[in-house]
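Retro notes - structure team

What went well: the batch runner handled both jobs without manual restarts.
What didn't: labels got mixed up in the shared folder, which is why I'm recording both outputs here explicitly, each with its sequence directly above its tokens.

Job 1
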Amino acid sequence: MITRRTFLTATTAVTAGAALGIAQSASAKPASHTSKYAGPHELPKGLTLLSISQPDGSETLGIKTGSAVIDVRAASSLLGIPAPLTMEELLRKGNAAALTRIMASNGSPKIRPALLDEAHITYGRLFTNPGKIVCVGLNYKRHAHEIGMPEPRVPPLFNKFNNALAAHNCTIELPPAGIAHKFDYETELLIVMGKAARNVSETDALDYVAGYCTANDFSARDLQLELPSSQWMIGKTLDKFAPIGPYFVSADLVGDPNNLKLETRVNGEIRQSWNTNDFIFNTQQMIAYISRHWTLEPGDIIFTGTPHGVILGYPKDKQVWLKAGDEIVSSIEKLGELKFRLA
């Protein structure tokens, strides 16, 4: 049985040579690599994007401009500008320039029918089919301390699957109590890859990032950590256990990802309030380390860990798990508030 403790302890028991791999990667040169995704891969700049759930059931891009949102599908047709309609299309095929042109047309009467009031939008999933959903565990110093674990010497990695992806303002339908009942929040910065990255250095790592989102690594702790399951995959990957949104913000608008305030509120009560400057492994180190083991492709996403304040870190007699009817709000500086409810 692999428990949380044995899983995380294993990451602290590596040899000194392996532990030095992160530092060594800083001077390494990126290996030659050809992405399976052809086409231009200019990174999006100056863009804040969201996903619109359309009446026909599709989920297409919107561009946030102040209080209004440009429906990219409608604007593309009105202006005759072929543009990517989903995050996957944007990141894998490119053509961010088309979105920039559409945004620049915001004042034109021609685009007026494509302008939406964000208050009336039904949000779609920002990501529906990423090639990889990589998650980094135990990546904040205070969080490691609150659960009594040593800081890992390399990033502990696990994954979620696409069935877990969910939209801003979604409702997560919890499984029956006989399946799980120890539900917990984890507000996390999400890294969105924009270029194929294989064996990249820490120095160059941010050059491969398209942007960032607010995300929540929602978890069933009993499935994750207790018998008869004790499986991280099951505890982390039930349907809709990875809400992301409401926005994708391009990297140039975010600046330093290693100094962003983040917060979790449950029914209005602050539960987590900290900063990514408490990362054990910063954004560059995570990307460099992961890319040493496999290729990160455009559109791959990385959950970066959560700070202290999760229910799991409370004394056992004060652990009041989330339940149907609760509202969770995850917010990250510059990236907006992700809201979802439990049912």
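Job 2
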Amino acid sequence: MGNEEKKGSIVLENFNSTANLATNPGFQSTLSLGSKEVINEKAYNPFEHRKVEHPNSTIGSLVHLLKSSLGSGILAMPAAFKNAGLAAGAIGTLVVGFICTHCVYVLVKTSQEVCVDAKKPSMGFAETCGAAFEYGPKRLRPWANFARTFVDYAMTCTYLAALCVYIVFIAENFKEVLDEYIPEYKLSVEAYCALTLVPLVLICQIRNLKWLVPFSAIANVFLVICFAITMYYIFSDLPKPEGRVVVASVTQWPLFISTVIFAMEGIGVVMPVENEMAKPQQFLGCPGVLNVAMTIVISLYGIVGFFGYMKYGDDVRGSVTLNLPQDEVLAQSAKILMALAILFTYSLQFYVPMEMIWRQLNEKISVRYHNITQISIRTTAVVGSVALAAAFPDLELFINLSGAIFLSTLGLLTPAVIDTVHKWDRGLGPFKWILWKNLFIAMISLIALFAGSYTSIRSMVDKFYSTPVLEVVANVTSITMNDTMTV
């Protein structure tokens, strides 16, 4: 026969179950190999293709998820309850917590499903959003790159805004303590914000995540001790709830929603935690890592918010540590520990936006200028965040604004949109309930975005213009009000 093939002969070019057993394309063979029917190739399973060098155990992943959600935001929950009332706050915390948990579930589930379409073992937040459009309805596929870019930039802005909140946390807690023990050198919050500049610039020059681990460990210890001391004061001589607002004005609810979203959302770390799991199948489901972690988070946030507001009422401040007694060493030590914990956490949070910024600039800059460029960008980012924090040093309003603009968009609106796009051609369920559910989540997000932003900005403007010009100058130059009035 030489090199010629006879018509009708069977040629086995490979020996797997998908081999072509007939040269006649019109003939579909039903032969079996190894007692198995010749069927389409096995569906891609991303979990089987993940190669994680140091995978996290299920317990380790639970700890990481708790750590990402149980931060300084829990101390802002009493202030959130001030804008809702005891009853509305308790119910609202459960509702917002459930919605946040569902949005995380939707994001992770969509990521796992688009990994099958893209035949990739894992994806991050931005990649998942881009892939949902890329493998979604044909008319929306050109928007895939925009979705990836939008989430990248939104994540960067979210973390930079959170860094501004951290600076105000540090400044206000140090001011509370030093004003008590060094009354002759009272400085403004703006001045304390400026004093954080040098240590933050230095610590943010650390570029290797490995060297930030000790700072993170120390910060966690400080946070636990501070939280324990704070709870001790909250439950000491706890007043009866009769004197507290049960349901606050509806106009204040957007501020409550914004604060709870800011405190509770850990959307940025969810995908890295799931991607690094040894058994990612255990992240979702019941009980599952996500459900267990969020049950603990919602419970603790509700308890701290409820009893913190019951204790301090409308006098509660942006961080409940600021309400602790001024004349007791234990209370003052909690404020110092809180400030130091946030200071040490700053560099770890700074790592995320810096990684995103550097990814965009890395290939556009010559290698010989990489070092000086990194130093310049890191220094500029820290200086900018300190300047913004000093310009608007009201902690509670800053938290409300950050939660309203950034986390309501990333944590609620984006997962709702991605879920809708992904399910559009795959089925939206009976009566299109998935579409209606996502529209409800989007509505909650937009209410928090527009109403929360408007209320926060209006409060900032009112506070700024209600402050006498002379007092503003005094704050900037660190002159006390008494000296100013004397002049």
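One thing worth noting from job 2: The chain has 18 helices and two strands.
We'll revisit the folder naming next retro.
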